Each structure stands twice: as structure tokens, then as C-alpha cells.
Amino acid sequence: MKLATFKRHLIESFKSLKRNGWMSVAAFSAVTVTLLLVGVLLSVLMNVNKIAADVENDVQVRVLINRGTTQAQQTKLKNKLEKLAEVKKITFSSKENELSKVVKSYGKGFKLFGGDGNPLYDVFIVQAKKPQQTVRVAQQAKKMSFVYDAKYGGTSAKKMFAIVDNIQKWGLGISLLLLFVAVFLISNTIRITILSRQNEISIMRLVGATNSFIRWPFILEGAWTGLFGAVIPLVIVNFGYVWTHRVLSQALASTSYRLLTPGTFLLEIDALLILIGIFIGALGAGFSMRRFLKI
Q1: Is the domain of 68 the same as that of 51?
Q2: In this structure, what DSSP letter does residue 60 have?
Q3: What range(s) does the FtsX extracellular domain occupy (predicted)?
């Protein structure tokens, strides 16, 4: 395609957007709502998947010590744990220290459980040499004397993956429905453009204009609709994620889990939303050309 021809198509696509004012706004709105929900859903899913992977790859096993266990018995239990071939390091954390972590993470209201009312357990934090050895360490620790329970990241990860799976199923269905609505509205917008320019199109065909020459302005109009409709979702998702990242990072500060950093992650989300917007816009235009222009 020659540069002059492409320039002409661009100008015509802009004129058509302006000519169909309110229908164009309706199409923009459909794309905006669709991409906003898709952007939020992608942000949530990618971060939940990362945290779930962090949990599953956590090489720590928290061995809860029975209440009333004496110092000598704790030492005996520690020696048994150290003899396990998969164990790299063991750290002791008293129930008072565990309570202080809870207070730091969830608020000062939990200070009420201090002293004799502390419901937490003394804990041996056992670090495995490799993530895949964590389950075996936990299973062996549970069988030892003076152990109330042995917890590891894999248990939480399984529950988290089940939640993620449900979010993905429902999110995919809702996203596809919204994408269909957006394509439908864009298609109708292009249809009005076609109907209003039927005489012009007929003349163009009589003088020998090719199908691609007639089709391109409409395809570009749909692509512009998708691109402009992506602007507001980009702004909301970017500022919203930066704020959410700052707040949740403080809450996760006492853990080994982190959210995806805004920089590269947001660039990837932005690029994906723009591509989706352009694609559904051009797709909607393509449907109109096929159904109504019949060229």
C-alpha cells in the first residue's frame, strides 16, 4: 500500500468516527468497560499465581511444639530434626515472638492475647535444602514426639490454586461475554458508517476501486475505536495497581511473599490491553464489512 493511500485511509477513518458521534462513544464505552475488567482480572490472576508459586516454593516448615513441652524435650526434638538429611537450618521462635508478628501484620488489637492468654505455639522454623524436600520434612516432623503439627507452604498453595482456578473460569467467561458485546457495538457503529456512505461506496466500485481500498478505512476506524477505548483502562489500571502494590506490600512486609513490581509488569499489561483493544475493534469492523457491505 502506498503512503499516500494509507494517509487517505487514516483521514477517512477519523472523519467517520467524528461523523458517527454518539455511536462511536457507545463503542468506546464498551471497549473501556471490557478492557478495564480484563486489566483488573489479569493483574489479580498474575499476582495470585506468583504468590501461590512463592508459597509452594517456600522451603520452610513450621513445626508447632506441644504446649507444656519442657526445655529438655525441645532440645531433644531439635536434635531429631537436625538429623534429617533434607534439613538445612533450624530456627526457634517463641509463642511471644509469633504473637508479635501477628500484631505487626494485623493490628494492635491482637495484643489482648498476650501473657497466659496467648493461643499460639512455640515453633521450630525448619529450612529444607530444596523446595521439593519440604513436604517430606513436614511429614517426618509430624511423626515426632512433642510435635502438635507441621505446616508448609504447599498446603496453602493447593487452596490458593483452587481459588485461582475458579477465578480463571468465571473471569474467562465474563471476559468473553464483554468482548462479544464490545465487538457487537463496534460492528454496529461501522454498519451505520457503511449505510451512510453506500452511494459513495457504489461510485468507488464503479470507477474500479478494489475491495481492500474500500475496506481499509472501516478496519482502521474499528482499530481506532479499540485503541481510544483502551486509554481510560490503562490509566485506571496503572494508578490503581501502583496504589494497591504500595498498600499490600506493607501488609506482606513480614512475610517472604511479594507482589509483582509495577515497572515491567504494568508495561506488559498496557501492551496487552492495547493489542486486545485494537484486535476487537478491527474484528468488529471486519464483521460489518462481511455482513453488510458484501464486497
Answers
A1: no
A2: E
A3: 59-148
As for how many domains the chain has, the answer is 2
Domain termination site, one of 132, 153, 174: 153
> How far is residue 229 CA from its own chain's centroid?
20
* Cβ pair 32, 233 in contact under 8 A: yes
Domain ranges, residue 92: 58-153
**Does 264 share its domain with 163?**
yes
Same domain, 191 and 281: yes
Helix, coil or strand: residue 56: helix
| 242 shares its domain with 279 | yes
Question: How many angstroms separate the CA atoms of 111 and 89, rounded?
Answer: 30
Burial class (CB in 10 A: 0-12, 13-18, 19+), 251: exposed
108 and 145 housed in the same domain: yes
Tens-digit pLDDT profile for residues 204-225:
777 777 767 777 887 888 888 8
Cα 55 from Cα 128, distance rounded (Å): 14
Other CB atoms within 10 A of residue 270 CB: 17
Torsion sign (Cα): 110, 115, 118, 121: positive
Q: Interhelix angle for 153-196 vs 198-206, to 10°? A: 80
For residues 73 and 33, state if they share a domain.
no
CB burial string 61-70: b at 16+ within 10 A, e below: bbbbbeeebe
**E strands within the chain?**
60-65, 87-93, 123-128, 147-152
Same domain, 162 and 282: yes
Claim to verify: residue 211 and residue 164 sit in the same structural domain: yes
pLDDT per position as a tens digit, 101-143: 777 766 666 566 666 667 888 999 998 888 778 888 988 999 9
Helix, strand and coil in the chain, % to nearest 5? 75, 10, 15
SS3 152: strand
